[in-house]
Each structure stands twice: as C-alpha cells, then as structure tokens.
Design a protein that fits this description.
This is YvbX. It comes from Bacillus subtilis. The protein is an all-alpha fold and about 25 residues long. It contains one helix and no strands. The longest helix has 24 residues, at about 5-25. The chain is rod-shaped.
Length: about 25
C-alpha cells in the first residue's frame, strides 16, 4: 500500500489550497 504517498500528496494539496485561498483573500 502506498498509504504514505497518498497522505503526502493530500497534505501537499491541502497546503497549496490553503496558501491559494489565503492569497486570494489578501488580494
């Protein structure tokens, strides 16, 4: 099982979405 790979990808996407929404709100 590539459980850790899935977790890493999900976490990376969550961080990107958080930074994107934070940037949009600031703009």
């Amino acid at each position: 099982m590539k459980k850790w790979l899935i977790i890493a990808v999900s976490l990376a996407i969550a961080i990107v979405l958080f930074m994107y929404t934070k940037g949009e709100a600031k703009a």
